[in-house]
Design goal:
The chain is α+β, with helices and mostly antiparallel strands and about 350 residues long. Helices cover about 45% and strands about 10% of the residues. The longest helix has 27 residues.
Length: about 350
């Protein structure tokens, strides 16, 4: 049944409510989950009740007929919270902090279980974590219109799926979505801020999480084409392979930049490609030839130049891996190229 949130908010009030209601978990105040519920309630109260169902157990349920224009009321005796404690806490918190009016537009879906069925439902909810497949930011890329357009486009011997990236038929070889994103960032400018963001898994998921952000839309937009994505992947992969083929002696001392900041070097090496129209399907530019001929030697030159600048910017022998990942360092190392 649908009920007004104001009618059940009191169930989540008080530090001992979880124990009193027999909930598995107490209030998770200050956690990412609790903050998410509170923000949803604050920003989109009309959507709060659309996410899941609050499940209560009860010793008995009695209907109290109401006169006039008001709906009948339900009296629940011997209440137990089987599932939904964090939502009840969010409702109680909102009412305590902002008053009853904060819940005026909130309707929640509620189910109340009595009798022998109550034990079975409680057991199933206690085991529910075993059957839940949580969505990730990568899963939600399917909601992006530009991604859906790519999925429907003609990839010839490939197909595109954001959960896997580029998949070649029939052998199933693939280019993961992480690599696709990093390849597109490698050909994006004018500075290295975006390629720095997606060079880490955390930054990658931060980008994917907000498909409306300017950074995301600079990579995934309505003008992108399969051939453009393939060109970016080929250029990025060629630069990465060139770095891996360098003698290990080049990666000593300040040369650790090659090991811990390869995306910066690849971005610098592929800088010249940004003057061409990446996603122009009808382009007569021999992309494959240019990538094969130019990217390897430009990658080696970029590695040498950036390592030399690194030695100048951070002289000394004591280098820490974390310092090689600093955005400010990446920006400083390529600043002469960006200004040029």
């Amino acid at each position: 049944m649908d009920v007004a949130a104001a009618d059940i908010a009191s169930l989540g009030a008080g530090s001992d409510r979880a124990a009193a209601l027999g909930a598995c978990r107490g209030p998770l105040l200050g956690t990412e989950l609790a903050d998410a519920w509170e923000q949803l309630l604050r920003d989109r109260p009309e959507d709060f009740g659309a996410v899941g169902i609050i499940t209560l157990g009860a010793d008995a349920v009695r209907l109290l007929p109401a006169s006039g224009a008001f709906a009948d009321r339900v009296l629940i005796e011997g209440v137990e919270c089987i599932d939904g404690m964090q939502r009840l806490v969010a409702l109680a918190t909102a009412r305590a902090e902002h008053g009853p009016r904060a819940l005026n537009d909130v309707v929640v879906r509620l189910e109340v279980i009595c009798g022998a069925e109550r034990d079975r439902v409680r057991r199933l909810h206690d085991e529910a974590d075993q059957y839940v497949s949580h969505r990730t930011s990568q899963d939600r890329l399917i909601r992006c219109p530009s991604i859906r357009s790519l999925m429907q486009a003609n990839w010839e011997t490939w197909r595109f799926d954001p959960r896997r990236g580029m998949v070649r038929e029939p052998d199933g070889a693939d280019v993961p979505m992480a690599d696709v994103t990093r390849a597109l960032a490698c050909l994006t400018g004018p500075g290295p801020e975006l390629v720095h963001t997606v060079s880490s898994d955390e930054g990658l998921h931060t980008l994917w999480e907000d498909i409306s952000s300017p950074s995301y839309r600079s990579l995934f937009h309505s003008s992108m084409t399969p051939v453009g994505v393939a060109r970016a992947v080929e250029a990025w992969a060629t630069a990465q392979a060139t770095l891996k083929a360098l003698p290990k002696a080049r990666s000593q001392g300040h040369g650790h930049l090659i090991v811990y900041a390869p995306d910066l070097i690849c971005w610098t090496a592929c800088n010249f490609l940004r003057r061409f129209r990446l996603h122009a399907s009808a382009s007569r530019l021999p992309w494959a030839e240019i990538i094969a001929r130019e990217v390897p030697h430009r990658t080696r030159a970029a590695a040498e130049t950036l390592v030399r600048r690194f030695e100048s910017v951070r002289p000394g022998r004591h280098l820490y891996q974390s310092s090689l990942r600093e955005r400010s360092l990446w920006t400083a190392l390529v600043e002469p190229d960006v200004r040029a």
